[in-house]
Amino acid sequence: MGEFVLTIHQLNKTFFTDENRTQALSGINLQVKDNEIITIIGPSGCGKSTLLKIVAGLDLDYDGIVLVGGSQVESPGRDKGFIFQEHRLFPWLTVEKNIAADLDLKDPEVRAKVDRVIELVKLKGFEKSYPKQLSGGMSQRVAIARALIRNPKILLLDEPFGALDAFTRSHLQESLLDIWKENQTTMLLVTHDIDEAIFLANRIVVMDARPGKIKGIIPVELHHPRNRAGVAFMEMRKEVLKVLEYAEETSNSWEI
């Protein structure tokens, strides 16, 4: 199993509240190779974000095996970068200091790394800006840069563009692909947007709800750059929707 960046085997997660017992995840099995982008879609309440938090080491109360880089996940760490829907920047720090966080910017090696990721996420010229001076999309770029500077084995993204307008979201999706191509970063991304899942992924994991389980894994063999209005993209969309045909009955949260 060591050849995979991420290995999940027979993962089960149950929440207990007072006298209630809710199984959030059941029998999850997934292996992610180096430099893959995996998108996870499914109705609200199917455990997508819970799964991401378990992989990140933010929730250790589960049954099963979760390996990152061949080692059991026992805590959060720099080997697992996490991007939330909200950028969660420190408002009193500049862009470069938000990216460096606990690292010393006076260290030449750290300085070089910060400069590199700033260029990578296309924020050159905004190093001294504060979060209040940035757009939502730019703030999310800072959050991505902050995760990338620590060279994570896997980047975990929980609906990172969900709060952005359609134009900004589309632009950031393209930027994320640029980062993936240049940095060779393995990514696991949760989304409600079917087109986003197809546009970004090497494989799409479709989840079912109550309890959360994998309904299907769909390979996306479209070449980059992908044309959202193209025939091949539309055919892939139909294929994904076939797997999601239950969605109208179980959820109204889809962006279709």
Write the layout of secondary structure elements.
Elements: E1 6-17, E2 20-32, E3 37-41, H1 48-56, E4 63-68, E5 71-72, E6 80-83, H2 95-100, H3 108-120, H4 136-148, E7 154-158, H5 166-183, E8 186-190, H6 194-200, E9 203-208, E10 213-219, H7 231-243, H8 247-250
Parallel strand pairs: 3-8, 3-9, 6-7, 7-8
Antiparallel strand pairs: 1-2, 1-4, 4-5, 9-10
Described by the principal axes of the CA atoms, the overall outline is: globular
Spatial extent as radius of gyration = 18 Å
Which range does the strand content fall in? Answer: 25-35%
Low-confidence stretches: 250-256
String of helices and strands: EEEHEEEHHHEHEHEEHH
Classify the oligomer: single chain
Number of helices: 8
Mean pLDDT: 92
Please give the largest β-sheet. 6 strands, mixed
User: How many runs of DSSP E, i.e. beta strands?
Assistant: 10
Task: Write out the strand line-up for the largest beta sheet, numbering strands in chain order.
Answer: 6-7-8-3-9-10
- Tell me the distance between the termini: 36 Å
Structural class: alpha/beta
Helix content: 25-40%
Can you tell me about this structure?
There is one protein chain. The chain has helices spanning 48-56, 95-100, 108-120, 136-148, 166-183, 194-200, 231-243, 247-250, and strands at 6-17, 20-32, 37-41, 63-68, 71-72, 80-83, 154-158, 186-190, 203-208, 213-219. It has 256 residues and is an alpha/beta fold. It has a domain at 80-151. The strands form 2 sheets. Strands 6-7-8-3-9-10 form a 6-stranded mixed sheet, with helices on both faces. A 4-stranded antiparallel sheet has the order 2-1-4-5, covered by helices on one side. The protein starts with 5 loop residues before the first strand and ends in a 6-residue tail after the last helix. 38% of the residues are buried.
